[in-house]
């Protein structure tokens, strides 16, 4: 460079409107997401709050809106998620342990893994059809709590497996090596070291899976669960309804009053979901932070 | 120290042996546990086999009565009328109409949010937005359906003068917001996985944030974003309760979003709600429709996973 | 380019000026090297500097080594990671109640070899072993070998201290517990004995129920040694046990190794040649998966038989 370069200043006073505008647009999109949530909750509260009453919690569904309640469906939901949890947690965590701690990296493991990833993407209504064909008809369980719970367990099984696998993977390999080097067997290592260390993550995943099971209506519709029951299920062989089904039923009626009832039932459902999620956060904060690798 | 013992294990009494009287791995308990855990993993495989078997067995019976050609090309879906018509196109069309609308809504908003979160947002904002998205994702489908019925549909009706309270547009709107969190979190992940060096290189050349984002980061993450959108489409296609409540129950071969349509999932719900006798052709239609649904969503998922896998390999 | 360790053998107290002047990138490790060699006394400068042996720590002589029984005997050992052969025809006898050091540049296979001795490599999916390893004359790889029992007899200490995220006591008690010991009093007895053995008892005796993760790095590593002792092993494998520790903690670990060799057969992998010289009786030099030379530490460091060994020890490569 022979001649002296033109003097350039860093203070160009130039602005980049395109860049700023783009940032604003993206920011707006984000604001829309938040607005959507706020709007959704506001709508539900506005519609549902007037219908919140003790009648809602203590009566069964009725043709008269002012007498209708969610007792049967709420109890049905509690039955469902209890049994679903009992079924899917041992199987899901067991499968995760098998994949992470036992299975060698073979075609078989990859197949199972691919299969689980795909199952997670299968629409829940398809599980409902499976439940209808397999549990209700072929196994003859009828439209019972058990058939519904088995179906829901299959819906959330991939969620439990994937969450548990992630939690197990987060346990450092050095812990396993230390345990093996001390003459522990594989199961002793898993049961005494790996699983306790992974427990907060596993529990968080399980709680999220339960929340999902609680909100699912489509598979239950396909299984043929009732939308009107005038009793609390007494055993796993009883017919049942579930809270999201009750909401669906009310929302699909033409009368405005039932829409209000549906919104009120949603508030109850959301309260239960919030409690579950608060539980997940609590587990994460209380036990997750204690172990630092 | 000079005298070294030549044999034996002085610390413990008898000589220990590492060989066992039985064959290796004689620990019966360990073997049983391994079997049990393996069985758990097999349950997931059996689930897939079960889905395919149940769908196929009833569908085959259905296709014994209705030709595959009529099913796939027929423009009328009236299985409950006489004479019945079994053309799945109106249901597929309804599904695509709702899904297309949902993607048109969720795609730009989701991508914009993802870009904002990964490129612009200060950590504090991220900390607030992430839980908001998690909550949106965690709200059950039926809740979106109720909001569609009570709020979105009346607004759409007033704004666009749709005749029916049930219309594809309100279904698209609620489904769009349902799949929004999925698009945001998946695309944000891939955007953030674009190496920092790449950004630094562009900034060092004097690029503005717009240039860096649209010409470097988004192109680098494009396949991941495509995968995210594919997964969201799959989710929207399989979406049931909200769509059933919002879009109605009219099999309708139309592209007008203001008309009432019926999706594949909504049809399954409609038949399930009624008391259709096992073995009847109506009963079997839900398996045929379910099989169609399963095939479409499964292919989308597999393609999306393949795209994601290829992208991951590229950066690792 | 593998650099660590090589310089250390010649970094004795009387040579710093030369080292400071040089621009060799390897010299950047100087501070660390000087610190690590602080316990050394300067010897006469020769083409190969013999490490200065601590007079308080007599190493076993070549004759003593020859007289010792082979606790572990390895013959024709080949090891493969998939298609890559990591170890070639290793033949080595590890004498009982002696310290054997494996030295060599990173990736030379010394850690892989160590992990063959308690079959920790079993857990690697595509690893394959050929050849014979005998522990007290019994094959490690026979069809009826119980790996769990083997690992109780051949303990291991890892490069990075890896205490369980539990209390100090639970860490020690783990080995006996998985072996079936349930008696709490007995477990405390074991914990006290092992902690004393690992020279950690005085520091932790009042807080056995505290989390092991609250200990310092050096204490954690001694806890891991104590934990390994609790299964009553005969052999102790140590995979660079002091590489992540400060010089003071390193010195304590080395003292400990020296005390433990009266009771245990110890195999230590190290990339620090002075450490090998300080603590070991026998040294084996590995290079690119081949055991180049093994012999009494004194011999190897003062009079290596192979040119490669000499080059490595004098820091000409590595």
TrEMBL record, chain A:
<keyword id="KW-1003">Cell membrane</keyword>
<dbReference type="InterPro" id="IPR000515">
    <property type="entry name" value="MetI-like"/>
</dbReference>
<feature type="transmembrane region" description="Helical">
    <location>
        <begin position="20"/>
        <end position="46"/>
    </location>
</feature>
<keyword id="KW-0813">Transport</keyword>
<dbReference type="GO" id="GO:0005886">
    <property type="term" value="C:plasma membrane"/>
</dbReference>
<keyword id="KW-1133">Transmembrane helix</keyword>
<feature type="domain" description="ABC transmembrane type-1">
    <location>
        <begin position="74"/>
        <end position="280"/>
    </location>
</feature>
<dbReference type="GO" id="GO:0035435">
    <property type="term" value="P:phosphate ion transmembrane transport"/>
</dbReference>
<feature type="transmembrane region" description="Helical">
    <location>
        <begin position="67"/>
        <end position="99"/>
    </location>
</feature>
<dbReference type="InterPro" id="IPR035906">
    <property type="entry name" value="MetI-like_sf"/>
</dbReference>
<feature type="transmembrane region" description="Helical">
    <location>
        <begin position="258"/>
        <end position="283"/>
    </location>
</feature>
<dbReference type="InterPro" id="IPR005672">
    <property type="entry name" value="Phosphate_PstA"/>
</dbReference>
<keyword id="KW-0812">Transmembrane</keyword>
<feature type="transmembrane region" description="Helical">
    <location>
        <begin position="145"/>
        <end position="164"/>
    </location>
</feature>
<keyword id="KW-0472">Membrane</keyword>
UniProtKB/TrEMBL annotation, chain B:
<dbReference type="GO" id="GO:0005315">
    <property type="term" value="F:phosphate transmembrane transporter activity"/>
</dbReference>
<feature type="transmembrane region" description="Helical">
    <location>
        <begin position="286"/>
        <end position="308"/>
    </location>
</feature>
<keyword id="KW-1133">Transmembrane helix</keyword>
<feature type="transmembrane region" description="Helical">
    <location>
        <begin position="132"/>
        <end position="156"/>
    </location>
</feature>
<dbReference type="GO" id="GO:0006817">
    <property type="term" value="P:phosphate ion transport"/>
</dbReference>
<feature type="transmembrane region" description="Helical">
    <location>
        <begin position="168"/>
        <end position="191"/>
    </location>
</feature>
<comment type="similarity">
    <text>Belongs to the binding-protein-dependent transport system permease family. CysTW subfamily.</text>
</comment>
<dbReference type="InterPro" id="IPR035906">
    <property type="entry name" value="MetI-like_sf"/>
</dbReference>
<comment type="function">
    <text>Part of the binding-protein-dependent transport system for phosphate; probably responsible for the translocation of the substrate across the membrane.</text>
</comment>
<keyword id="KW-0472">Membrane</keyword>
<dbReference type="GO" id="GO:0005886">
    <property type="term" value="C:plasma membrane"/>
</dbReference>
<keyword id="KW-0812">Transmembrane</keyword>
<feature type="transmembrane region" description="Helical">
    <location>
        <begin position="212"/>
        <end position="233"/>
    </location>
</feature>
<dbReference type="InterPro" id="IPR000515">
    <property type="entry name" value="MetI-like"/>
</dbReference>
<feature type="transmembrane region" description="Helical">
    <location>
        <begin position="36"/>
        <end position="56"/>
    </location>
</feature>
Automatic annotation (TrEMBL), chain C:
<keyword id="KW-0067">ATP-binding</keyword>
<dbReference type="GO" id="GO:0016020">
    <property type="term" value="C:membrane"/>
</dbReference>
<feature type="compositionally biased region" description="Low complexity">
    <location>
        <begin position="28"/>
        <end position="42"/>
    </location>
</feature>
<protein>
    <submittedName>
        <fullName>Phosphate import ATP-binding protein PstB 3</fullName>
    </submittedName>
</protein>
<keyword id="KW-0547">Nucleotide-binding</keyword>
<dbReference type="InterPro" id="IPR003439">
    <property type="entry name" value="ABC_transporter-like_ATP-bd"/>
</dbReference>
<keyword id="KW-0592">Phosphate transport</keyword>
<keyword id="KW-0813">Transport</keyword>
<feature type="region of interest" description="Disordered">
    <location>
        <begin position="1"/>
        <end position="59"/>
    </location>
</feature>
<dbReference type="GO" id="GO:0005315">
    <property type="term" value="F:phosphate transmembrane transporter activity"/>
</dbReference>
<dbReference type="InterPro" id="IPR005670">
    <property type="entry name" value="PstB-like"/>
</dbReference>
<dbReference type="InterPro" id="IPR003593">
    <property type="entry name" value="AAA+_ATPase"/>
</dbReference>
<dbReference type="InterPro" id="IPR027417">
    <property type="entry name" value="P-loop_NTPase"/>
</dbReference>
<dbReference type="GO" id="GO:0016887">
    <property type="term" value="F:ATP hydrolysis activity"/>
</dbReference>
<dbReference type="Pfam" id="PF00005">
    <property type="entry name" value="ABC_tran"/>
</dbReference>
């Amino acid at each position: 460079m022979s001649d002296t370069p033109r003097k350039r200043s860093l203070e160009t006073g130039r602005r980049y409107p395109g860049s700023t505008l783009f940032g604003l647009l993206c920011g707006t999109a984000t604001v829309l997401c938040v607005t959507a949530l706020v709007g959704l909750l506001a709508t539900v509260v506005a519609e549902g709050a007037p219908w919140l009453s003790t009648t809602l919690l203590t009566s069964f569904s009725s043709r008269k809106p002012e007498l209708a309640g969610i007792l049967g469906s709420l109890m049905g939901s509690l039955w469902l998620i209890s049994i679903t949890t009992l079924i899917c947690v041992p199987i899901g965590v067991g499968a995760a342990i098998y994949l992470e701690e036992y299975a060698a990296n073979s075609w078989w493991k990859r197949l199972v893994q691919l299969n689980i990833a795909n199952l997670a993407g299968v629409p829940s209504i398809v599980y409902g059809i499976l439940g209808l064909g397999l549990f209700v008809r072929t196994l003859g369980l009828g439209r019972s709590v058990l058939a519904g719970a088995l179906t829901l367990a299959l819906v959330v099984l991939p969620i439990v497996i994937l969450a548990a696998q992630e939690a197990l993977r987060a346990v450092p390999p050095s812990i396993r090596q230390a345990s093996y080097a001390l003459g522990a067997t594989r199961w002793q290592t898993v049961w005494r070291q790996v699983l306790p260390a992974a427990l907060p993550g596993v529990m968080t995943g399980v709680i999220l899976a339960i929340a999902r099971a609680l909100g699912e209506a489509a598979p239950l519709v396909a299984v043929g669960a009732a939308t009107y029951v005038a009793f609390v299920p007494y055993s796993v062989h009883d017919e049942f309804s579930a809270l999201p089904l009750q909401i669906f039923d009310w929302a699909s009626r033409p009368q405005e009053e039932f829409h209000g009832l549906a919104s009120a039932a949603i508030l109850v459902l959301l309260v239960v979901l919030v409690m579950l999620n608060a539980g997940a956060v609590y587990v994460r904060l209380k036990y997750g932070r204690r172990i630092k690798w | 120290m000079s005298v070294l013992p030549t044999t034996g294990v002085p610390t413990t009494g008898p000589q220990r042996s590492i060989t066992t009287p039985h064959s290796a791995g004689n620990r019966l308990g360990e073997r049983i546990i391994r079997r049990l855990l393996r069985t758990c993993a097999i349950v997931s495989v059996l689930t897939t086999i079960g889905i395919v078997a149940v769908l196929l067995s009833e569908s085959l019976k259905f296709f014994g009565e209705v030709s595959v050609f009529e099913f796939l090309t027929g423009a009328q879906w009236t299985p409950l009328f006489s004479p019945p018509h079994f053309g799945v196109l109106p249901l597929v069309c309804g599904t695509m109409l709702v899904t297309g609308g949902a993607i048109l809504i969720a795609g730009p908003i989701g991508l914009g949010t993802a870009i904002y979160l990964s490129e612009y947002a200060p950590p504090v904002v991220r900390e607030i937005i992430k839980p908001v998205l998690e909550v949106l994702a965690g709200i059950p489908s039926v809740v979106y359906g109720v909001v569609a019925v009570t709020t979105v549909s009346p607004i759409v009706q007033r704004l666009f003068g749709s005749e029916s309270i049930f219309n594809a547009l309100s279904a698209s709107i609620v489904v769009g917001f349902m799949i929004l969190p999925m698009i945001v979190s998946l695309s944000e992940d891939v955007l953030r996985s674009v190496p920092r060096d790449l950004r630094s290189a562009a900034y060092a050349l004097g690029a503005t944030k717009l240039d860096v984002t649209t010409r470097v980061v988004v192109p680098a993450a494009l396949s991941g974003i495509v995968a995210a959108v594919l997964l969201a489409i799959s989710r929207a296609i399989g979406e049931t309760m909200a769509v059933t409540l919002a879009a109605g129950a009219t099999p309708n071969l139309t592209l007008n979003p203001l008309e009432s349509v019926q999706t594949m999932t909504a049809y399954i719900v409609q038949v399930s709600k009624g008391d259709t006798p096992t073995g009847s052709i109506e009963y079997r239609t839900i398996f045929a429709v379910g099989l169609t649904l399963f095939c479409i969503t499964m292919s989308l998922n597999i393609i999306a996973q393949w795209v994601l896998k290829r992208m991951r390999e590229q950066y690792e | 380019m593998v650099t660590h360790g090589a310089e250390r053998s010649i970094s004795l107290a009387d040579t710093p000026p030369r080292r400071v002047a040089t621009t060799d990138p390897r010299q950047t490790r100087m501070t660390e090297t000087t610190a690590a060699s602080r316990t050394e006394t300067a010897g006469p400068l020769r083409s190969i500097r013999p490490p200065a042996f601590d007079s308080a720590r007599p190493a076993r002589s070549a004759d003593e080594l020859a007289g010792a029984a082979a606790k572990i005997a390895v013959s024709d050992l080949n090891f493969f990671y998939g298609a890559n052969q990591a170890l070639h025809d290793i033949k080595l006898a590890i004498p009982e109640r002696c310290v054997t050091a494996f030295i060599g540049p990173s990736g030379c296979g010394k850690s892989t070899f160590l992990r063959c001795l308690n079959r920790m490599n079993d857990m690697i999916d595509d690893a394959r072993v050929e050849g014979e390893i005998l522990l007290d004359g019994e094959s490690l790889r026979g069809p009826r070998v119980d790996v769990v029992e083997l690992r109780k007899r051949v303990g291991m200490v890892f490069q990075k201290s890896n205490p369980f995220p539990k209390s100090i006591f639970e860490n020690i008690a783990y080995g006996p517990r998985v072996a079936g010991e349930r008696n709490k009093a007995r477990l405390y007895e074991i914990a006290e004995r092992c902690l004393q053995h690992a020279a950690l008892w005085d520091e932790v005796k009042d807080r056995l129920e505290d989390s092991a993760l609250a200990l310092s790095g050096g204490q954690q590593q001694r806890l891991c040694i104590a934990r390994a002792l609790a299964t009553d092993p005969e052999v102790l494998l140590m995979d660079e046990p002091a590489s992540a520790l400060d010089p003071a903690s390193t010195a304590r670990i080395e003292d400990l190794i020296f005390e433990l060799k009266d009771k245990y057969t110890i195999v230590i992998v190290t990339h620090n040649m002075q450490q090998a010289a300080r603590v070991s009786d026998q040294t084996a030099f590995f290079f690119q998966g081949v055991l180049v030379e093994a012999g009494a530490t004194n011999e190897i460091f003062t009079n290596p038989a192979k040119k490669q060994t000499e080059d490595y020890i004098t820091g000409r490569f590595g």
